[in-house]
Amino acid sequence: MLISILFRFASADVFNIPGVFQVSGAPSTNGQTCFTVHSAEGGWAAIGVGSTAMSGSDIYLGWKNQGTVMVGNFKGTGHSQPSPNSVQNAQQVTLMETAPSWSKLSFSFCRPTAIASNGKSITATQNYIYASSPDQPSGSSVNTLSYSQHASNYGNFNANFAASSNTTTTGSVSASILRVGDDFTYQQVVALHGIMMFVAWMIAPFLGIFCARYLKDVLGHNWYRLHVFFMAFACGLVTLLSFALIFLYSQPPHFNENHKVVGLIILLCLLFQIMLGYISNARWHPNRKTIPWWDKAHWWFGRGLFLLAIFNVYLGIDLYGDNYGSSSFGLYSFIVVLVLGVIMMIVGQFTYGQVHHVADK
């Protein structure tokens, strides 16, 4: 329930990222500390008390529910969505200062300065985190709230909101190269990245390998054209575009999770694999008697890369579920396509068998 109070900030500590995010805080006269948050992103905004990361933070999050701003208290749990605090320490109050023109979401709340359990006390200079997102949450209460992971605007800072020192700290964000917005959210960027990588590594390689392994005699030279289409374009080019998409819209650091590190390794290996394929084609001769080592290197390096990419697609689906709450459709699609792909390869092996172009065949 929104409480109207007479207390207003006479002097307060302020953390300000100009035009992006601002939080003001000061103690009141009744054993509470009051905060006002302004965010340039209108989906949700939050601050966390007592940590430099989500895990262990006492989080206070504001969001819009059918046009009405609400505030809730949550427990930071790492990379998964924070869970509602069993004791809701946040008491939403009428906005305590005029919202700046750039703010799309502003709210004020008070909470006890000292908390014995189910929260973190406000002390002298301590750690805080902040985050925001343009994605609109769903849910009308803290217990039903579901919201997407923050995009570019997040970080940590130090402040002394336990004293009215009227100190302003100016911060900055390591912004992404391209910015998301209300029309193209970060969750949509991640979903598009995932769909593109799914096509590039769960569909295209099965088809490209099938053509190269089994259909040389059936298709004639067209097997090679199809192999190049599936592997260089449907896999290679789509991978490059998908990698560029997520890189341009993500805030640094870019390679701080297993999925991202493995993805970079796959990209570099893909470029090497394409080079091996080019060498194999350029050095092919119709009168050759045996399979040269560079052809075999292309086969086995490609197989290993394919398996690594399948594993990384799974990591990506799992990471999406951690950040956005559900990845069931992606996981089911992964299992179905993987099973169908394996069945297709088995059928090809027994129907056509592996075909090599050597002179004595």
Key features of this structure:
single chain; alpha+beta; Immunoglobulin-like; transmembrane helix; membrane
Report on the structure:
This protein is an alpha+beta fold and 361 residues long. It has helices spanning 186-214, 216-219, 222-249, 258-282, 293-324, 328-351, and strands at residues 13-17, 21-27, 32-39, 44-49, 58-65, 68-75, 83-84, 91-93, 105-112, 126-133, 154-159, 168-170. The protein has two domains: 13-170, Immunoglobulin-like (Sandwich); 186-351, Four Helix Bundle (Hemerythrin (Met), subunit A), CATH 1.20.120. Helices cover 39% and strands 20% of the residues. Strands 8-9-3-2-1-12 form a six-stranded mixed beta sheet, with no helix packed on it. The model has no long low-confidence stretch (mean pLDDT 87).
